[in-house]
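Usage

Read records sequentially. Each one opens with the input sequence:
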Amino acid sequence: MTTRAGFVALIGEPNAGKSTLLNRMVGAKVSIVTHKVQTTRARIRGVAIEGESQIVFVDTPGLFQPRRRLDRAMVAAAWGGAADADVVVLLVEAHRGVTEGVERILEGLADIGQGRKVALAINKIDKVEAPVLLGLTEKLNAAYPFAETFMISAERGHGVDTLRHWLAGEVPEGPWLYPEDQIADLPMRMIAAEMTREKLTLRLHQELPYQLTVETENWEERKDGSCKIDQLIYVVRDGHKGIVLGKKGETIKSVSTAARHELEEFLGRKVHLFLQVKVRPGWLDEAERYAEMGLDFKDGNG
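and closes with the structure output:
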């Protein structure tokens, strides 16, 4: 019996549906999914099994015009994930079509696409009529020689099985890279921090979510089978700390409860979660914070 295993990079503009597609492919929530753009910071790997193939998905940060050091590090991580992959899948939102951002990505693909298959996945197909889809497909395939084109709805699951089946046949022959029951190669400490950061992103507005980060400071296994997790939320100024805490601590309480419930569901056991907010004005320029996010600090130099 021939086994296959390989890396598949999901690339696209922010909010194109990469994290939603990854979570649906893997069958579990391993990547942060919010309505806010640029929420995926690290290259999160999710592992899916299809027949005798093991597909390791790399959910890269969205590709956009970087302005800050963190932005530049995220974009470098995205292109790095694509360049290291066996197969690349470009996600384009059906209703947005060929934007400037998509055009920039197509130019970038010309550099890294050599020697590897690149598939096109047009996502959110339920938002447009068939003639629009056809026109978009023709335009994109004229701009780049895609190996295959797939029409999908990552949120509803339409077309996802067909895409996964195709990818299973495209990854190289070889032994599996991860144990059969492993769905992500991120340490649980980082997944836990991402879950809390997602809850904060959903509760907070404007720029604040991009001005904060979450780190798991301590993880203690208890005799009764539960675990105690201590996390630090870093913000850049005192005013942000007040926003994260909320009136009489209501915001941090609701974030903590939501994150704890999700962690308990994910781990299948009781979790004691303790959150603390710290003001660190310069965290966006600290190499250690980038390492915690799985990003390369040096890539932030522009």
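Summary fields computed downstream for this record:
- The chain has two domains: 4-170, 188-300.
- Residues 250-267 form the longest helix (18 residues).
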